[in-house]
């Protein structure tokens, strides 16, 4: 197969859709979302301090593949230095099964988060994308080598260990 950059399907030319909400919580009050940005070579989820994006005042961008966070400079939102209670709430949410029936095929919100990330990046429309592989595609595919692609079977970092 030709390289991803030269193929008929080039993820860099597919426009990203709006931010996808993975889930929200009332108690504690938070939301988890994915919103890829062009020009970046990393992959991450966003954890907001309110279930409403508009009402949130803080956000943290957490890497999918390593225990790392980024000071996300989003207009009107400060870095959320999540404490122990907030880290535990996030990890519990990500380990829970999705509550929305259309996502019942996913074992955990973590798997759903990865799927939505790949979907927002346009990877799920790529001809090589195939849910029959635990990774989401054949590991020999050029898609697998794209810096923002996250294999579906990626283990969740221990976000409880994040320190500031």
Would you give an account of this structure?
By secondary structure, the chain is α+β, with helices and mostly antiparallel strands. 18% of the residues lie in helices and 16% in strands. It has one domain. Strands 1, 2, 3, 4, 5 and 6 form a 6-stranded mixed beta sheet that branches. β4 and β5 form a beta hairpin. It is globular. The N terminus is likely disordered.
List the helices and strands and how they pair.
Elements: E1 20-25, E2 30-34, E3 44-48, E4 58-63, E5 69-70, E6 78-79, H1 84-95, H2 109-121, H3 142-145
Parallel strand pairs: 4-6
Antiparallel strand pairs: 1-2, 2-3, 3-4, 4-5
| Approximate shape | globular
Order of helices and strands: EEEEEEHHH
Number of helices: 3
The total strand number stands at 6
Assembly context of the chains: single chain
- Rg is 16 Å
Main β-sheet description: 6 strands, mixed
Briefly, what is this?
The chain is built from three helices and six strands. The protein is α+β, with helices and mostly antiparallel strands. The model is unreliable at 1-17 (pLDDT under 50).
Record keyword descriptors for this entry:
single chain, about 160 residues, alpha+beta, 3 helices, 6 strands, globular
């Amino acid at each position: 197969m030709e390289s991803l950059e030269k193929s008929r399907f080039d993820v860099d030319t597919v426009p990203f859709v709006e931010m996808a909400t993975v889930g929200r919580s009332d108690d504690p009050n938070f939301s988890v979302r994915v919103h890829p940005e062009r020009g970046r070579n990393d992959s991450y989820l966003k954890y907001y301090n309110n279930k409403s994006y508009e009402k949130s005042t803080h956000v943290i961008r957490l890497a999918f593949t390593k225990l790392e966070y980024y000071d996300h400079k989003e207009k009107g939102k400060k870095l959320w230095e999540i404490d122990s209670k907030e880290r535990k709430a996030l990890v519990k949410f990500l380990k829970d099964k999705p509550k929305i029936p259309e996502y019942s095929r996913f074992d955990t919100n973590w798997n759903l988060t990865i799927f939505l990330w790949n979907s927002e990046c346009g990877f799920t429309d790529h001809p090589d994308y195939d849910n029959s592989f635990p990774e989401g595609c054949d590991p020999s595919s050029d898609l697998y080598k794209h810096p923002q692609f996250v294999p579906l079977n990626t283990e969740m970092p221990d976000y409880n260990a994040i320190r500031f």
